Amino acid sequence: MQIVDTKNIEETVAKRMWSVAEFCKRYRLDQAEETRLRKLLGDFASQHELLMNARRKASFA
To answer: How many other C-beta atoms can be found within 10 angstroms of the C-beta atom of residue 18?
Structure first.
């Protein structure tokens, strides 16, 4: 048996998970980038993971 002191329990906030498809629509990423992100992260990922791994082609090139 374990005694838990309620004074030491921290409140943790759940991470907001995004659908990779919805993220790609919102940030106007192409189908190839959506496929790459799905292979890398799965169907759902945190916003931070998506932002750090998304690549966007240069609009002037």
So the answer is: 20
Put simply, whether the predicted model's pTM sits higher than 0.85 gets the answer no
CA distances in angstroms from 30 to 4, 22, 45, 54, listed in the order given? 49, 12, 18, 11
* Tally of CB atoms within 10 A around 28: 9
| Matching residue, tokens 């940030």 | 27
Give the DSSP letter string of 15-41: PPEEEHHHHHHHTT--HHHHHHHHHHH
The mean of the pLDDT values for the chain is 88
Cα distances from 15 to residues 21, 28, 56, in angstroms, run 18, 23, 24
